[in-house]
Write a structure and sequence with these properties.
The chain has a six-stranded parallel beta sheet with strand order 2-1-3-4-5-6, with helices on both faces. By secondary structure, it is of the alpha/beta class. The protein has helices at about 20-30, 45-55, 70-80, 135-145, 165-180, and strands at about 5-10, 30, 60-65, 85-90, 120-125, 145-150. Helix content is about 30%, strand content about 15%.
């Protein structure tokens, strides 16, 4: 498995050192797409940054998105003419920017694109995610054409839920890379 294929797409406020995305990056050498402003995320800026990173690559990437990063994948795919630069995506715990409590912070992220992704994708959702209901996660998976995995009661599937390296998630990614 070529680790340079994998791009880490954190959500709002980035992923701290104890987040499984950061742990995977440190352990496997995956590349993080750095955003200009992690605290005030603007959809257009984040889409442009992802596009720039993908255009600099020699081969299709596999995206590993968490929370707002999932919405970034959907928004980028809905607008880019370069979707061939992505081979697959692992979408974990999408944030629902259309929830009342998130709208003031994530104003530019609504409406959420609900268009089928032009590459293989897997969405992992949680039954007790405070930022996205399981039902809404399933709606995203259906709209985006993603296979859905119910992670059970795993909160927002981040550092606060005590997943550590989240080996189950990495197994899902490894299979996605093999299939890609």
């Amino acid at each position: 498995m070529n680790t340079s294929h994998v791009l880490i797409l954190p959500g709002w406020q980035n992923s701290g050192p104890d987040h499984w995305q950061s742990r995977w990056q440190a352990a496997h050498g995956y590349l993080r797409v750095e955003q200009h402003d992690w605290l005030r995320p603007l959809r257009g800026d984040w889409i442009a940054r992802l596009e720039d990173v993908l255009l600099q690559r020699d081969e299709p990437a596999v995206l590993v998105a968490h929370s707002l990063g999932c919405l970034l994948v959907a928004a980028w795919a809905a607008h880019s003419r370069n979707t061939h630069l992505v081979g697959a995506a692992l979408l974990v715990a999408p944030g629902d920017a259309e929830r009342e409590e998130l709208r003031p912070t994530l104003t530019s992220w609504s409406p959420i694109p609900l268009k089928k992704l032009p590459f293989k994708s897997i969405l992992v959702g949680s039954r007790n995610d405070p930022y996205c209901s399981l039902e809404r996660s399933r709606q995203f998976a259906d709209a985006w054409g993603a296979d859905f995995i119910d992670q059970g009661n795993a909160g927002h599937i981040n550092a606060e839920t005590g997943l550590g390296d989240w080996p189950q998630g990495h197994q899902i990614l490894t299979q996605l890379l093999r299939d890609n």
